[in-house]
Amino acid sequence: PASKKANITYQIGNLYLDNIHNYEKALAAFVKVELLDPKGSLVKDARKNQVECLERLGRSRDAQEKLDQITSLKKKPEKGETIIAQIGERIITDRDFQKRLDQIPSYARDQFKTQAQKLEFLKQYIASELMYDTAKRKGLDKDPEIEQQVFETKKALIVQKLLKEEIQSQIKTGESDLELYFQAHKDDYRIKDRRHVRHILCKNRDSAFTIRNRILKGEDFEKTAKLESLDTESSGKGGDLGFITEDGYIPGIGKSEPFIKAVFKLKPNEISEPVQTDKGFHIIQLVELQTGRDVAYEEVKDRVNQDYTRMKQEEYYKQLIDRMLKAENVKIFDDKIDEIKE
């Protein structure tokens, strides 16, 4: 029976561990115990011994990962936690889910708000864990290329931590500094002229003129856009492109001088002649016009603070680099740079 084989293998493992001190073979034996009788009474001790073997082999990172794995298997939901998934004996709670979700950028988090989206994220989370386990069983965590990447990532994080400590301590931001910065960069914060527009994208000039004439004769622009526009992104919204500025990006179109020129010539509710871009021919309606204006410091105080801090960080970063290069007597041979092969 499996339990008997597991017991014999466990004794062999102990012999290698305690008497012969062959930790590789001891580790192999204890792993085999777990495979032979996964639900047996010896599994708990076999797992502990695996951690000890890894520690004695100098594989502290592997030992910690094994310990984390054992801990996760033993884990029980804390008060207020809800189990939302289970991988074998391992549980995943709503708190685990939220912790993983918090690790991704805030703009990406917005993709996972509905129940269906959260379910999809949970599936991705579980799949990632399963694939990680599979990769480890194949020994990919020992791959030299992976280990080098892990080292480089760790080094980058340590450098970032150092920079944060070195630079952040140097930045002293006062209200007067921010106000002076705002006055010097006032044009950067000015609200620009904006135009709220709708459009209908047509395949050629003739169809654009035909549709334009129908609208001029009384057809509703939004309804016509829903029926006729080839722009699938905006047609469902009646051709609405929102607000655009003279130097801004046009949704679904990008940068287009002919389009912008036509828009800024229009009066509210006026319909343009067909305008050609690389997407096709457009009929444009100006919905609303907003004239640009200067803003008060209080309106953009937070943004000014961010911009000022970023500027000071860049200044101190350059100073820090120069200081370190001089302190360590670094020599850079500029004339050799061109010799570096791509």
Written account of the structure:
The structure is a single chain. 57% of the residues lie in helices and 11% in strands. The protein has 342 residues and is of the alpha+beta class. It folds into 4 domains: 2-74, Serine Threonine Protein Phosphatase 5, Tetratricopeptide repeat (Alpha Horseshoe), CATH 1.25.40; 83-137; 146-186 and 298-342; 191-290, Chitinase A, domain 3 (Roll), CATH 3.10.50. The strands form 2 sheets. Strands 4-3-6-5 form a 4-stranded antiparallel sheet, with helices on both faces. The protein has a two-stranded antiparallel ribbon with strand order 1-2. The chain is extended, with a radius of gyration of 32 Å.
Count every helix, treating DSSP H or I runs of 4 or more residues as helices. 15
Outline the low-pLDDT stretches.
none
Strand content: 5-15%
How would a crystallographer describe the biggest sheet? 4 strands, antiparallel
Order of helices and strands: HHHHEEHHHHHHEHHHEHEEH
Write down how many β-strands occur, each being a DSSP E stretch of 2 or more residues: 6
| N→C terminal distance | 62 Å
Helix share, percent: 55-70%
What top-tier CATH class of the largest domain fits best? Alpha Beta
Whole-number average pLDDT?
Answer: 88
Q: Which class of secondary structure composition applies to the elements?
A: alpha+beta
Going by CATH, the architecture of the largest domain would be Roll
**Cα shape:** extended
| Strand line-up of the largest beta sheet | 4-3-6-5
Number of domains: 4
From the 3D structure, determine the CATH topology of the largest domain: Chitinase A, domain 3
